[in-house]
Amino acid sequence: MIPPQTRGQRGNGSAALGGTHPAGRSLSSRWTTEWRQLKKNAELILLLLPGALYTLVFHYLPLVGIIIAFKSYRYDLGIFGSEWVGLKNFEFFFASETAWRITRNTILYNAGFIVFTTATALAFAIMLNEIGRRWVKAYQTVLFLPHFLSWVVVGYIVLAFLDHESGYLNRLLMLVGMNPQNWFYESSFWPYILNTTNLWKTVGFATLIYYAGIIGINSEYYEAARIDGASKLQMIRRITIPLLTPLIAILFILAVGNMFRGDFGLHYFVPNNSGLIYSTTDVVDTYVYRALRTLGDVSMAAAVSFFQSIVGFVLVLGANTIIKKINEENALW
Predict the structure, then answer these.
(1) What is the C-alpha separation between 321 and 314, in angstroms, rounded?
(2) Host H or E run for residue 39
(3) 149: which DSSP letter?
(4) Least enclosed by CB within 10 Å: which of 26, 54, 105, 154?
(5) What phi and psi values does residue 175 have, to the nearest 5 degrees?
(6) How far apart, in Å, are the Cα atoms of 128 and each of 26, 214, 229?
(7) Dihedrals φ, ψ of 85, to 5°?
(8) Where in this chain does the record put each ABC transmembrane type-1 domain (predicted)?
(9) Closest CA to 285 of 147, 58, 103, 153
């Protein structure tokens, strides 16, 4: 039986659920109340189940494997039977000669990707909004198509352009009287090549997101500005960019969270894993892969992945804090 006071609180909606329970309320009455709430929201809970199960299985259960980073993992002993080694697996990564190089490459490349992709996608989205609706789908398809290509395919496309003997780019250089280049032997070219390749593959998807944000802006703002005699550039500066700022801020925070996580496909398949250009193409993920392939050290790989996740978490918190100080409304929380 539900006490009269409890029934009164239930009538007040969420206040009853989040509020303090009466001192004399029994455990059984609480379960009865909760069960009635579950039955009341059964359809919503049913819709929630697939997402909750996916998150539990693929995002929370694997967290148990984090302890491998603190153990000397042996296949015969398993995760829980292997010996604890503390932070030795982390020391292996930080003590390696390439730690600084791959950390620098990972952060700088991701910073470049965020800046170039955001700026270019915004420009393309604004241009798409200005051209006639008739051609929008054609431009969208051309921009979006590279997004569906795997990095293996993109690697072969890049090879077709940069191959020393038969690449299109070297043929073009010879046509204009210049010497061909060994692109896969010269590390200085690769910051430009990787940034360009990543931009070509990802800008279509980012453009689509910003374009969706632009067409969601109330057209009355533009009509009022047009009546006041505002030019196209003024409308972009005073209406489009400010109203897109929250979307840009959210995507920026999410991108910063992956700033210490290099794209393995981009940095492995596109440079063709050429050892002569590791100084400018190697990132944390490709280094871990090579270390696993040659050493087979699962604990070290887990330690680096754990370190990447911690740094990504700290970066998300930092980016959100900075954005919150600039404009609280644009922050994620």
Answers:
(1) 10
(2) helix 27-40
(3) S
(4) 54
(5) -65, -35
(6) 63, 10, 22
(7) -125, 10
(8) 103-319
(9) 103
